[in-house]
Amino acid sequence: MSELRCDPLLKRWVLIAPGRESRPDDFAVAITNGQPDHPCPFCEGNESLTGPEVLVRRSTNSTANGPGWDIRVVPNRYPAVAPEPASQIWGATAGFSESGWGRHEVIVETPRHLPLTATHAPEHWHRLFEVFQQRLMDFRTVAGLQHAIVFKNHGPAAGASLMHPHCQVIALPRVPDAVTAELQAGEQRWHQAGKCPRCELLDAEIEAGTRLVATAPEVVAWCPPASRFPYETWLLPRQHSSHFESADPGVLAELARQLSGILTRLEQVVPGLSYNLVLQTAPLHAPALAGFHWRLEILPRLTGMAGFEWGSGWFINPVAPERAARELRCNDRLGEGG
Ligand SMILES: [Zn+2]
Ligand SMILES: [Zn+2]
Q1: Cα(132) to centroid(ligand 2), Å
Q2: Is 13 helix (H, G, I), strand (E, B) or coil?
Q3: How far is the centre of ligand 2, averaged over its atoms, from the C-alpha of 241 (Å)?
Q4: What's the predicted TM-score (pTM) here?
Q5: Are 298 and 269 in contact (CB under 8 A)?
Q6: Residue 338 confidence (pLDDT) above 90
Q7: How many CB atoms lie within 10 A of CB 80?
Q8: Which ligand minimizes its atom distance to the CA of 282?
Q9: Which pLDDT tens digit goes with each residue over 172-223?
């Protein structure tokens, strides 16, 4: 049974998820053959190997939980959270622990078992973003769910245990510490300056230009000044907005265009790259927030969390974001150093 447990001194929460011990790990095979040696549960035709679909985009003449789909959302077979709150939890009365319940779903991005080097066309990313929005809207209707993280683990170094392209979403009964800290800092800054701190930063970055990767009236992509990872890239809406689920089709289309281009470029710059995608959006039931700005983060996994990082909480990034942005801008020459 999953539990959320808190270090009472550090106020740092962890999700203890014993059910995750038996996850599949087909990577040794996947990397050598390009195909897993057992039937892939996410390939078209193998729908019976997953739980029933909770959301799907399928052709009108196909039947539920059979072939004929292009995006399919199913429950994770190895969920990090329990489906319902548990009644008895160790340490709950002292406030150190609570039930680790919620939703953990897999968003199967495509019926095809694409290689790791492939990325989707912008139109397909756009459809995936619409599915993300729908999941967030649906989670709002589940009493007790507070926050959802949509993410993608791409490649073995990013923690992917199945190589068929898929994203995941975990919805939780508690807003994670890092999100709470950002909400509070953003609100504080908004009260001081009358402006969202990310909007301020965006204006400054557009003026400076040195860390920009792509710009459009709808979306800006840049390597943040304090990038934790080499080639870390954030994509933000140009117009202030706290909730991804309220982004309009024009923003989603441009977000998709930029994401597809940057992932293609990253694969050229660092072939075989593993990365995480993380959608940072406001809590499910928060009103529109003036101090919080949603974003999509691309977090390449070229460097690990080693002793220094665990000891300090600080990351060592050997690639300056200015250089990373220069290499990721599609028209620039590679390898200029700097
Ligand atoms: Zn597959
Ligand atoms: Zn903003």
Answers
A1: 21
A2: strand
A3: 6
A4: 0.92
A5: no
A6: no
A7: 17
A8: 2
A9: 999 999 999 999 999 999 999 999 999 999 999 999 999 999 999 999 999 9
